[in-house]
Amino acid sequence: MEVLEIYPKIVVYRDVFEDAKKVEQILKDSTSNDPDRLLSEWTRWSIFGDYLNPTIPGNFPRGFNQQAIDELETNTPAQEDHKYFLQELWNGYNKVGRDYLDKFGAEFGFDEEEMTEDQDGNRLPRWQMYGPSICKYDSSWEHPMAMTYHSDYIREPITSPGYKFAVTVNAYFNDDYEGGQIDFYAGNELYSYKPKAGDWLVFPSGHPEVLTKDEKVYLHGVVAPTQGHKYFSRMYWRKYANGAPEWFEKEKEYGKEVWASMQDEIMEKFRNSVPNRFEIPEGVRINNEFNQ
Fold it and tell me: In 3-state terms, what secondary structure has residue 170?
């Protein structure tokens, strides 16, 4: 496995899949209407393209694990291919995720064995794997950015209790498209990277506990593909936040259900007043030796 730290805490992993071409082809062929398929049919993914998910029984997405995959029954060649695809995705996630957290986990406060309690006294893991969703960008998007600069960590005016994105783990299955680069804005520098087929890319999700060298959150945007389809998978490590004291004060003030019902309007106003960075200053792009 080749490991390239293209920017502090932004790491590319290569030669992770056993057979990257086979994994790519299985995904591209996953258009069958076979009712026993292990991958769902492609459905609309907002304005960006399409996505599918594994049809693993149980508590998806937290049910995506080695045991669940091993227990999948296969009766057709398509099912065998889908199981192989899921095994490779799970194996890759563990391989690159473990390596990344071995290197940087202390800065995230990562401890896989740590437990915490929610507001009702229920014990639960501080850290949780989340995903995957398997996505396909299409080239019909007219704006040059398929996704404007953002953090996967969902910022809030008052921190609510629950799991928050901390580490983003993306797998890229093909590179036979035009455009489609991922742009990172970190440390007042803009860094563009176009993944190669089989690449895994791991980076901070924008969690406020892990900042850039200029004390800002990591942001990233995605350039829209201009020709062809871009296939990739999104997975995460999430960290449980116990919630700010003010959150529970508001629950007492309004009532738990009413306070929860108010969040859509509160978050919309917050996003409008504190937007992610949409325009990047000129002169901040740095050389990208790994894209040569």
Answer: strand
Q: Considering only CA atoms, give the Rg of the chain.
A: 20
Range among 60-64, 91-95, 183-187 with highest mean pLDDT value: 91-95
Rounded alpha-carbon distances, angstroms, from residue 243 to 111, 166, 173, 181, 251: 19, 16, 37, 35, 11
How many other C-beta atoms lie within 10 A of the C-beta of residue 121?
Answer: 6
How many domains is the chain built from?
Answer: 1
Q: What CATH number does the domain containing 100 carry?
A: 2.60.120.620
Residue written as token pair 């258009």: 31
Q: How many residues does the chain have?
A: 292
Running DSSP on this structure, what letter comes out for residue 8? Answer: T
- Name which of 165, 16, 196, 197 is nearest 90 in CA terms: 16
Report the pLDDT value the prediction gives residue 290, as an integer from 0 to 100: 46
Q: What is the mean pLDDT of residues 203-218?
A: 85
Q: Is the pLDDT of residue 171 over 90?
A: yes
Q: Is the pLDDT of residue 292 over 70?
A: no
Burial of 45 (0-12, 13-18, 19+ CB in 10 A): middle
Domain that holds residue 51: 2-291
List the one residue out of 128, 93, 97 whose CA is nearest residue 232: 93
Q: Name the residue among 154, 142, 135 with its Cα closest to residue 195.
A: 135
- Quick check: 52 pLDDT over 90? no
